[in-house]
Amino acid sequence: DSGRRNVLVCFVASLMIKQRNMFAGLPELGISNGEDLKETLTNCTEPLKAIDQFQMENGILLPTLQSALPFLDLHGTPRLEFHQSVFDELREKLMERVAIIAEGKEEDRYRKLEELLEKSFPLVKMPSIQPVVMQVLKHLPKVPEKKLKMVMADKELYKVCAVEVKRQIWQDNQALFGDEVSPLLKQYIVEKEAALFSSDLSILHNFFSPSPKTRRQGEVVLKLTQMIGKNVKLYDMVLQFLRTLFLRTRNVHYCTLRAELLMSLHDLDISEICSVDPCHKFTWCLDACIREKFVDGKRARELQGFLDGVKKGQEQVLGDLSMILCDPFACNTLVLSIMRNLQELLSQDALPRDSPDLMLLLRMLSLGQGAWDMIDSQVFKEPRMDLEVVTRFLPAMMSVVVDDHTFTVEQKLPSEEKSSLSYPTTLPDAFNRYLQENRVACEMGLYYVLHIAKLRNKNALQRLLPALVETYNDMAFGDIFLHLLTGHLTLLSDEFGSEEFCSVVFDGFLLTSFSSKENVHRHTLRMLLHLHHKVLPSCMETLMKTLEPPKQSSEPVKELFTQLTEKLEAQKKSPPPLEETPSLDLGLHPVTVPTTASTPTTPL
User: Fold this and answer.
1) Cβ-proximal residues to 271 (8 Å cutoff; 6+ apart), any chain
2) What are the distances in angstroms from CA 66 to CA 55, 56, 78, 509, 517?
3) Where is this region: Disordered (predicted)?
């Protein structure tokens, strides 16, 4: 009856009216919404006819469709489902058309998109229409400022809009961009520190093992690259954030990110940015050196050309170049190249000061080591290298090499020809002094210690380690060096069964600062987790008492100590089988080659 029909109609109308906020923008486009239906139903005498009329006026305006709709009814297909499918199809077609227009070459393509934006923007809050509006915004190279402000002011709209739109918002709103970038920069530092404290302890797989290209595939670098796009202004903002954070924290990982970000944009061929960054070609050349872990003569000359090419009035570029050279991956490459260069000079009986390649490597290492001071003081001038590093420190370091070589040769002589020569225990005064007073010399000294450990030279290592207790700015107790040293010490795992060796490594070096430097505590525990079964039992017992974390220690230290305790307990119950010393053998077996006139017989 009519009473029931009226109740049903009112119920349907109330459902539509509840959605009125969603369809609030329709009247601006001349389309009826829930409010119009409410008014129609309120003033009409025959609600069913009024609804039919409303559907007729606001449905799909296609005359031939009206006669076809009853067939859908016969198949039990609801009108809503039909209209929704048509709507979805039209929306997809419209979004495709927007992309085609934007990618076209017509001069008025952006005018067309702006007109479509004006018509569709009032419906931006309508979930079914919102994707179309966002598609238009995405493809407009310059969104009207009024629309940008409306998107920025609405958290929901800002969240769903494309990164292309956000870039236009960010470039005029540094604080908002900083809020977006800050979590990524924190994540990057956390990831780098996690790598340094990794549970893996190996000389073959360490912090410096990943190639530059692999590192650039990291989540943070990719996200930052996407956020910047081709926008030079945003790129400059990120660089400024990195400089500020580097100054505030002295954390060299920000220097790594500066180089990685530029090379990530280089990989994508973003010439809009690479062409305006004066450090691009220098970083590109250095990146190739880092990939090879060596600076060859040709690339050394290229890098020197970039440094010498800094013109008067453009000295500020040195600040960015120094930051790129301060990247630990760059420093690692430079010092490894210096070590290789010194070995060649030693074999040729040549002096360090006579090698232009060595002097250039030292120049770049010095520039990188002085990055923080340069950016902090804003005095953009290459630091003057202390020539005594070349004339006093390097000869002193080479004398240590000669001492070791002399002793080794002496041991190979027949007993009747041997002298009473014992292995030296002290170091030249110049070596110790420069290790404490000069950061460039200290960096080379630390890498020489790593080189000695890699050669499994126990005598030289026992001679050198105590000297590292006092180094420039406590560089020997930095995370990067300790990460590398603990990995290299795995090559000497059998030596930990000697009380003398344990005393030098632990009492003579690591335990001298573990109580004041928690990172040293962590690295020591990391190493013992891998080598505890090799350490002399009496030393291990003493170490466990010494290394027990105080209450104020951080959770990672406590967790490492707990893991070590559990391993020792398990070892007491079931002693593990003897393990072989980790080998650097890559499994490549020698192949016999027939000797001919053209085949060299000297082993390489």
Assistant:
1) none
2) 11, 9, 15, 90, 82
3) 565-604
**CB contact at 8 A, 195 and 218:** no
Residue 20 three-state SS: coil
What is the DSSP secondary structure assignment for residue 553, as one 8-state letter?
A: S
Q: How far apart are CA 485 and CA 488, in angstroms?
A: 5
DSSP 577: P
Contacts of 546 (CB under 8 A, 6+ apart): 511
Q: Is the pLDDT of residue 576 over 60?
A: no
Task: Give yes or no for residue 585 having a pLDDT over 60.
Answer: no
Global confidence as pTM:
0.84
DSSP string of 126-164? Answer: STTTHHHHHHHHHH-SS--HHHHHHHHH-HHHHHHS-HH
Rounded (10°) angle between helices 479-489 and 174-196: 20
Query: DSSP string of 300-325?
Result: HHHHHHHHHT--TT-TTHHHHHHHHH
CB 92 within 8 A of CB 125: no
The pLDDT of residue 425: 86
Single-letter amino acid code for the residue at 247: L
Give which of 378, 394, 390, 264 is closest to 320, Cα–Cα: 378
HSE (CB half, 13 Å, CA atoms) of 324? 26
CA distance 166 to 134: 11
Mean pLDDT of the chain, nearest integer: 87
DSSP label at residue 494: G
Distance CA 290, CA 330 (A): 6
Tell me: the pLDDT tens digits for 19-67?
544 555 565 665 666 676 777 777 777 777 777 777 777 777 777 777 7
Q: How far apart are CA 206 and CA 188, in angstroms?
A: 18
CB 531 within 8 A of CB 501: no
* Rounded distance between C-alpha atoms, residue 79 and residue 72, angstroms: 8
pLDDT at 580: 52
Handedness of CA 13, 15, 18, 19 (dihedral sign): negative
What confidence tens digit (pLDDT) does each residue in 311-346 have?
Answer: 888 889 999 999 999 999 999 999 999 999 999 988
Q: Within 427-517, where are the H helices?
A: 429-437, 439-454, 458-464, 479-489, 499-502
State how far the alpha carbon of 563 is from the alpha carbons of 204, 269, 405, 542, 568, in Å. 24, 47, 41, 17, 9
82 neighbors 65 (Cβ within 8 angstroms): no
User: What is the per-residue DSSP string for 368-400?
Assistant: HHTHHHHHHHT--SPPPP-THIIIIIHHHHHHH
